[in-house]
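Lab notebook: predicted structure, single chain.

Context: the supervisor wants predicted structures on file for every construct in the current expression panel, including those that have not yet been purified. This is the next one on the list. No modifications to the sequence; it matches the entry in the shared construct table.
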Amino acid sequence: RTASQELKKGIDPVLVFWRAFAMYKEGNIQQAIQELEGVSNRREIQYAAFEALIFYHKECRMVDQEAVDNYSFQKDASQNSASDKALITGAEFFWYIEEHKKARSLIDQALANNPNNVYAILTLGWIDLTCGRDSLANKSIEHFDRVLEESGQNKPFQGMLGRAKFYEVNKKFNQALDTLNELVVVNSKFIPALIEKSRLLMMIGDWEQSLGTAQRILQYDSQNIEALRTTIFHLLAREASYKEANAKIEELNDALQRYEPNNPELYYRIARPFARICGRKKNILNQTIGFIQQALKLQETCHYHAELGYQMAILGDMNAAIKAYRSAADIDQSNVEALYGVIYCRIQQGMLDDAEGQLEFMREIQTSIGKDAESTFLDALITWKKKKSRDGAVKLLDECLSLHVKASKQLAPGYDFYTKLNPDFLLEMAKEYLQHVGLTPIPMGERPPHHLNRGIRLLETLTKQIPGLIEAQLLLAKGKYVANDAKNALRVIENCLGLNDECSEAHILAALINSKTGNTGAARSNLENAMAISFGIRENPLFMLVKGQVEIKSGEFTKALETLKKAIALPGVKSGSKKKSHSMMEAGPEDKLLFELSIEDRAALFTCLIQVYAELNQLDEAKKVVHMAIPEFSGTSEEVKILVANSEVALKSGDIKKALNMLKQTPKDSAHFKEIKIAMANIYLSKMMDRRQYAKCYSDIVEANPSTENYV
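Prediction complete. Output recorded below exactly as produced.
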C-alpha cells in the first residue's frame, strides 16, 4: 500500500523492489517476478534484485532453472561492484526472510566500503537484535546508540524504533515507552511509533492508555488495521461490549478488503485471538469464521482448515467442525490439531467409545512426543464422561493445566500470547473442575475440595487477564459462594452486572446467595430482575430452584410448592443432562454456564419439594417424591441427601425410630458417613433431648476419620 502510493509520484526502484516483495508475501509470486524484472538492471538495487529473483523463482511450483542460473550468474558478477544501497536492500531482504547470516554478510560488505554508513549500521542493529543469538542481540543496542548519539537533533526513526525494540525484548518496558514517546514528540502523527506504543502499553497491562493511543491513530487514519485490532481486543477483553466490537470488526473487515485483500496470514492471525476471548458469542464468531474462510479462499493450508474447525466447534456446529478438521488432515495427515479436534467433536456428540479409541491410537503413534495439554484434556473429558471417575478426571485436569501454562509462558504478552493462552480453553477447564460442585455451599468449617480450590484459582487468574469474559466471572462467583465466600461472590457478580446489567444468570446467582445469607428481600428483587430480562427464564430449572428456595426462606410454602412442582416437571431434571428444557436448547454455546444443572442441583429440587410437602403436612405426597428420587440418585454422590430427606419425612410423621433406623444403615466406610451422623446427632438433640447419643455421633465421626477438621 505505502509503496504503491509513493510510486504515484514517480518510479523509484527501491519502492518497486519492496512492492514486489509484498506481492510475494501475498502469494503472487509470478506477479512479484514480473514487477521486479522491470527494474532489475537499475544499479541502486541490481544486486538485491538478482538475489530476490533467484529466491522467488525457487519458491515457484515449477522452478525455471534456466532463469535461476541466469540470475545467479548476474548476481555473482555484480556483487563486488554493488552499490551500498543495493547491498543494504539485499541485507534487508534476507532479514525479512529470516536468513540472518546472509543479511549480516552483506552489511559487513557495505560497512567495509563505508564504516560510517548510517543505514548499514542501523540495519546491522536490527539483524543482530532479531537473529536469535544472544551474544549479538545483547550488543545490538550499541549500533542504535552510535547512530543516535552522532545524529544530534535529527535522530533517524529507524534508530529510535530499534532502541525501543531492544528495551522491549529485554523487558525494560518503561525505557521502551520513553523512547517511543520521544519519537512521537518529534512527529506526533508518526503512525508506526504510535502503533508500537499502543501495542507495548497493552503488553504491560495499561489498557486505557493503549486504547487511547489506538483511538489517536484512528483520528489520523480511520481504517488503520492495527488500531482497529487493538480497539476490538479492548472491547472484548475488558468491556464485554460485544455489540460495539461486532461493529468494529465490520470496519476492520472493510479495511482488510481495501488494504490487505490478498493477505491470508493476516486474516488468520487477526481472527484467532478474537475467537478465544469473545465468550463464544455467535455474532463475533460468525465474523472471525468469515476471516478464516477468506484466508482459505486465498490459500488453502492445513492450519487455516484446522482453525476453521476449532471455531466451528466452539460455535457448537460439530459436524461443520469435523468437516474442516478432516480437510486439514487431508492436506497434512500428521496435523495434531486436526486429529485432536475430531476427537473433541466426537466427545461433544456423545460418541465416547469412538473418541477413546481415536485418542488411544494417537497415543500409540506419538509416544516419542510425550503428553501435551490438548490430549490430556481430552483424556480428562473421557475419564469423567465415560468412566465417571471424578478423581481421575481432576488429576488429568491438573496435569493439563500445568502443561498449558508452561507452553503459554514461553511467549511475551501480545496477540500471540492470548491466542496460545486461549482463555476459552481455560474457561472450559474451569467448568470441568467446578462441574463437580452444585450450588450448595460446603459445610462451614470444612476444607474446600481440591477441584473447587483449583477451579477458583484458575478463574481468578483468567478474569484478571480477561475481565470481560463474563462467563468466567459468573463461574468464579459460583465457586466462591460454594466455598463459603458469599461476600466476594457478590462482589464478582457486581462486576458482571457492571459489564452487562442484563445478565440474567448473574441475577439468578445473586438471588441464591442473598437467599442463603438471609437477605430475602434482595433475593426476591434479583429474581424479578431476571424475569424482567427474560420471561422465558421460568422454563429454566435452575431459576425455578432458586425461586423455590427463596419462597421456602420466606415461609411461602404454597407458592414454593407450585414453583417446585413445575421445576420437577421440566425436561432435564428427572433424566439428568440428557435432555434439556426448551429455553436451554435455544441458548447458544455462550449461554450454558448456569443453565446446566449439576446432579447436586437436581437433587436439591427433589429435597426442596419433599421439604415443602412435609411442611404442608402432605406426607403421602412427600413419600411419593422420595420414592421417585431414590432410584434417580441411587449410587450417586447425592444418594445421602435423599436418605436424609426420607428420614425427615419419617420425623414429620412422628416416627423417630424409623428415621434413625434409616440413617443407621450407613456403614462407617461410606463417603457419606459424616453427613449421616450429623443428621442423626440433630435428631437425638432436637427430638429426643439425648445429649449422650448426640455426643456419641460426633465421637463416631472422629473414630471413623480422626482428622483435625473432625476434631474441631
